[in-house]
Design a protein that fits this description.
This protein is an alpha+beta fold. It contains 13 helices and 26 strands. The strands form 7 sheets. Strands 17, 18, 19, 20 and 21 form a 5-stranded mixed beta sheet that branches. The two termini are about 20 Å apart. The chain binds ligand EPZ. Ligand EPZ binds next to helix 5, helix 6, helix 10 and helix 12. It holds the Pfam family EPSP_synthase. InterPro entries: Enolpyruvate_Tfrase_dom (IPR001986), Enolpyruvate_Tfrase_sf (IPR036968), MurA_subfamily (IPR050068), RNA3'P_cycl/enolpyr_Trfase_a/b (IPR013792), UDP_GlcNAc_COvinyl_MurA (IPR005750). Keywords: Cell cycle, Cell division, Cell shape, Cell wall biogenesis/degradation, Cytoplasm, Peptidoglycan synthesis, Pyruvate, Transferase. This is UDP-N-acetylglucosamine 1-carboxyvinyltransferase.
Amino acid sequence: MQDDVLIVHGGSPLEGEVRVKGAKNLVPKAMVAALLGEEPSRLRNVPGIRDVHIVRGLLQLHGVAVYEGDEPDELVMDPSSVELANVADIDAHAGSSRIPILLCGPLLHRIGRAFIPDLGGCRIGDRPIDFHLNVLREFGATVDKRPEGLYLEAPNGLHGAKIELPYPSVGTTEQVLLTAVRAEGTTELRNAAVEPEIIDLICVLQKMGAIISVATDRVIRITGVERLGGYTHRALPDRLEGASWACAALATQGDVFVRGARQLDMMTFLNVFRQVGGAFSVEDEGIRFWHPGGRLRAIALETDVHPGFQTDWQQPLVVALTQATGLSIVHETVYESRLGFTSALNQMGATIQLYSECLGGTPCRFGQRNFQHSAVISGPAKLHGADLVIPDLRGGFSYLIAALAAEGTSRVHGIDLINRGYEGFHTKLAALGARVELPPQQSGIAVAADAAGAVHSVA
Ligand code: EPZ
């Protein structure tokens, strides 16, 4: 598809302002939570990204009326007529996102049955759903796995459970929350994930009438209630998108004010950004990130669950690390295959070597298992333009950063994938002075994405 290629002329700094809206990793889940209520919910600060449109479609298939609210970026969801959707209609969403798995608990509570299509999402590892199915069974659900997807029922209702996760999985923690809030009795979840997006989901559920406490030792306790109402909530800002723009500023020697970025959610990132040699200033309305001049410093870094360094920050930061002087070490401990994108950076002139050992940090689940999950980055490297094919969401944005930092012209293929998580990224790039264009047939035209994430050209 012609529109799916972006031509990027690199070599000039990104300068100006972008705004981040609600977090991609909260908004679709808060939309699922609306299913649990018996009154309409209002979600604010909703970004126009593909994942939101997918969940909107899924909710509508289940009888939820979804419409724009009075405020800009506000969605209203009215679940008063929830019904079982047609399996073939749901199946049309197969492979589009990982969010459908989170509909299990809410649908079992509301209509006693659920069909979940085969999941999609970024190919950054095997991404199994075993934890999800195990916790659903602990609540009393039966799961029938068939080639087209999962059929779930709860013949005796859903009951609170004592659960300990083998790993603090974000999605499984959300699964437990969305199921336990209306299960009979209390649920205790040990080794839970506590990412800011999860805490924000807990805030949403509490507004609906749920009783949830979070202890400092990764233990979440939920007392089930019989009925939940609606909520009005402003989604927390997207700290992953914020960090992506920060890395773009650093790698291109630029200066970007990210309106909406919040210090509290980005503390770990900010520490690393400063260690590498980036400068930032926290202001009331956002955070300004810039390259202060001089050399960037190599660092050793390990990704981890919150409050560690988020895995989704890793890929954009690696591009900036190609510009640091010396050897940087990155140990990816959350996903086993999230460093494959570096081969394209090498093609552009970077020197990045991958290892299957756990380098520079504590041994992780992937050590001794032949996954290339550690990287040594030798810099600074002079990057040059190349033909790139986007592998996944964050890897894709990282390719854009690399293309912008490189000398010469790059063709970035598969840019439509970026619309899954970055609202109007073309428009934002243009506002920062990036020189990007569609292929020659439509040359000289700036591009933008509409609220549905579809790419179109603007004169
Ligand atoms: C969420 O994925 C995010 N996605 C990811 O963001 C993010 O990288 C990840 O959390 C970690 O922060 C959304 O919120 C939609 P996990 P999730 O369950 O919930 C293993 C982005 O670019 N695991 O915390 O799917 C799994 O394989 C995306 O914005 C199992 O083994 O992640 C991984 O190694 C990409 N079995 C680890 O746990 C399971 O049943 C963490 O995964 C579930 C997970």
